[in-house]
Amino acid sequence: MPRFRSLKTTLRAWFRREDWSKNEPLPPECRDTGVSPVSLANALFACLTEGGVMAERAAFAMGGVVAAIHAESPEDAKNIVRRFMWHMNEESGNIGWGIPEAFGETLAQCPPLADTFRRVLLHYIYDAPEEKSTGFCDHAPLRIACYRAIARLLEARPDFVNEAMPLLRLSAQNETDDSCREAARALIRRYLLTTL
């Protein structure tokens, strides 16, 4: 367990650096062969809850780590995405801070996982009354993060825009939260010409 605590401390210090860059999302000591990617992903989960820049940087790093895990063991990578889903589930007892960002980055950086799990991410923004269980995220501040995650996914995978657009339109019409409604409308405006 000291190794895990040490890894978390190292990552948090790295993400706080003013010279942090997407070109080097992880500290050198985490890039060597002594740290397993799964251990790294576990430590990154602890950084996601910090919020703000820390969560954004941890989410970006998580995407790359999970993509690397997928190259070696697709099932281990899928298990990490399932952990995202569990953290977003009310039954988990977690609020899910940082999870949508990590989910979006992971799908953006790992196309096979996007092919498998994109619908889960998309359904966090729309409460479909006709479906018994949609996975809708009913906490508006967290749902805003889901819109940002979807924006990141669509940026990386414009081939999903046509699939996302109906849900974004429904969300824009039915959202009860003003900020979430505007987030849906902003994405529609951004990608409207793509779907014509």
Order of helices and strands: HHHHHHHHHH
- What's the mean pLDDT score? 90
Distance between the termini: 54 Å
Would you count the extended β strands for me? 0
| Alpha carbon gyration radius | 17 Å
- Count the DSSP helices: 10
Number of domains: 1
The major sheet is characterized as: none
The percent range for helix content is: 55-70%
Instruction: Report strand %.
Output: under 5%
The backbone outline, from C-alpha atoms, is globular
Low-confidence stretches: none
What does this protein look like?
The model has no long low-confidence stretch (mean pLDDT 90). The protein is 69% helix and 0% strand. It has helices spanning 2-16, 28-31, 37-48, 52-72, 74-88, 99-109, 111-122, 140-156, 161-174, 178-191. The chain is an all-alpha fold.
Give keywords.
mainly alpha, 196 residues, 10 helices
What is shown here, in short?
By secondary structure, this protein is mostly helical.
Q: Helices and strands in order, then pairings?
A:
Blueprint: H1 2-16, H2 28-31, H3 37-48, H4 52-72, H5 74-88, H6 99-109, H7 111-122, H8 140-156, H9 161-174, H10 178-191
